[in-house]
Design a protein that fits this description.
mainly alpha, about 475 residues, globular
Length: about 475
């Protein structure tokens, strides 16, 4: 049996995830991660706000109607970066420097190649996919142009996502945040310059996003090249190690498939929204963008849960796994309730940031009532999935998520929504599907945790008071 290397002392920017107390460390890890997610989301929000305020609601609808389609095409490969995060975290927790090095030098080329593939599919298939979604004729030309420019930057976006996953697995969430802060400022500056000064509309915001993706990719590679210890990257050592790739795929592929199927259900919902016209599309676009800030904050708790769980799994500290989940459930519930309900209560001023037309705001407010106020349920679902993936299981949560979320939504659309075609009836499908998913994932966690405890042959530690 191989003896794991002694882990080097953690740097100040890296968090020791295996030593109690853990609550404060989870917060220290989660907060920069949430801020990073919010900044990344601002790429698209800045595009929507810029065209909504300085172009017209048609351009705004064109940009906003692409988000569910982008997620559908991209999320399969984003899931692989989740696999890289989980596998790398376990290597760090186990103190296995050699395997960690293989994960790093496999992840970056896999990310780049994934980005090229996604970029080709998205660029050449943009209009075809938009037509499948019954995108309004008033916006489809602009939406196609925006998508094509957006997908040109996809290789850079994937490099950033995989590189940031490596850094976060090592306990470093601050530098990915700083990288995105710089790239986000560049994105906003280019948006305003090209749209206001030159009137380029969707072309201007598309170029701004692509340039910011390039900047973030270069920056994360620079940081990894200068990294000491775990996570260090060298172009000379690039190689796809089959063992590391298999482990990444084992966790990441089911996660990617799950996200893709989720996106497919959202595409179906977006297609239904499109049937209400361009004003409804614009209102839903603004509301969905606001929801995104709530979701990405809750998802940061899920990623923290995954990373802490994976490191403790690697360190064979089963008691910490249960403690991490309990604390993350508490954090995500509080955040989800405060942010979800808060966004709904402030709906009018927040939606007016995107567009000031009363009809657009009214449609957006309706969506926020049904989809954003109960958003904490989605957070609970995500945290449970993060814990299960951190223990190296990804297939079961994928299957149950597809059944609970996608199955429920699609069934709802073709039954209840078909019988009563209103936006309210459509949006109710969100909380109903989250409730079903939480129940299924809780049962899955109980089953998986028992197997893991038996595997590790550990006596469960009693959580500290």
């Amino acid at each position: 049996m191989e003896t794991a290397e002694v882990r080097p002392k953690k740097k100040k920017r890296e968090i020791d995830m295996c030593t109690r107390p853990l609550f404060g460390k989870i917060l220290l890890f989660f907060l920069p991660l949430a801020a990073s997610g919010i900044l990344q989301l601002l790429y698209n929000a800045a595009d929507i706000i810029t065209v909504g305020q300085f172009a017209d609601h048609t351009a705004m609808a064109a940009v906003g109607s692409t988000s569910s389609l982008v997620n559908l095409i991209v999320n399969l490969f984003i899931g692989l970066s989740v696999g890289a995060l989980s596998v790398m975290s376990r290597c760090v927790g186990a103190g296995d420097r050699e395997k960690a090095d293989k994960v790093v030098h496999t992840s970056i080329p896999v990310g780049f190649l994934s980005g090229i593939l996604v970029g080709i599919v998205g660029f050449f298939g943009a209009r075809f996919f938009l037509e499948l979604m019954d995108t309004d004729e008033l916006v489809i030309d602009q939406a196609t142009i925006y998508l094509q420019i957006y997908f040109i930057g996809m290789p850079f976006s994937m490099i950033y996502n995989f590189g940031a996953a490596i850094l976060r697995a090592c306990g470093d969430t601050k530098r990915p945040l700083l990288i995105l802060a710089g790239a986000g400022l560049i994105n906003v500056a280019i948006n305003l310059w090209l749209v206001i000064a030159y009137g380029l509309g969707v072309v201007g915001v598309g170029v701004g996003t692509t340039v910011s993706q390039l900047v973030s990719a270069v920056a994360v590679l620079f940081v990894l090249c200068r990294q000491k210890g775990y996570g260090q990257f060298s172009f000379r050592r690039i190689r796809i190690h089959i063992g590391a790739l298999k482990n990444i795929i084992r966790i990441g592929l089911p996660a990617g498939i799950q996200s893709t199927i989720f996106s497919l259900s959202n595409v179906i919902i977006q297609s239904s929204i499109n049937s209400f016209g361009d004003i409804a599309m614009a209102g839903s676009t603004a509301a969905a963008s606001l929801e995104g800030f709530v979701y990405t904050t809750m998802n940061a708790v899920s990623q923290a849960c995954l990373t802490f769980t994976a490191q403790n799994y690697g360190a064979r500290k089963f008691g910490n796994i249960r403690l991490v989940l309990a604390q993350c459930i508490g954090i995500v519930t509080v955040i989800g309730l405060i942010m979800g309900v808060g966004v709904y209560l402030l709906a009018d001023p927040l939606l007016s940031i995107y567009n000031t037309e009363p009809e657009v705001i009214a449609f957006g407010r309706e969506r926020l009532l049904y989809a954003c106020a109960p958003y904490f349920l989605c957070g609970l679902m995500e945290v449970l999935v993060g814990s299960i993936r951190g223990m190296g299981r990804s297939l079961l949560p994928m299957i149950f998520a597809i059944v609970a979320v996608c199955g429920v939504r699609i069934l709802w659309i073709y039954t209840f929504f078909a019988a009563q075609r209103t936006l309210a009836m459509l949006f109710i499908s969100y909380p109903v599907s989250w409730l079903a998913a939480v129940a299924m994932h809780l049962c899955t966690f109980i089953f998986v945790s028992k197997k893991v405890k038996k595997e590790l042959k550990l006596t469960e530690e009693r959580p500290a008071a």
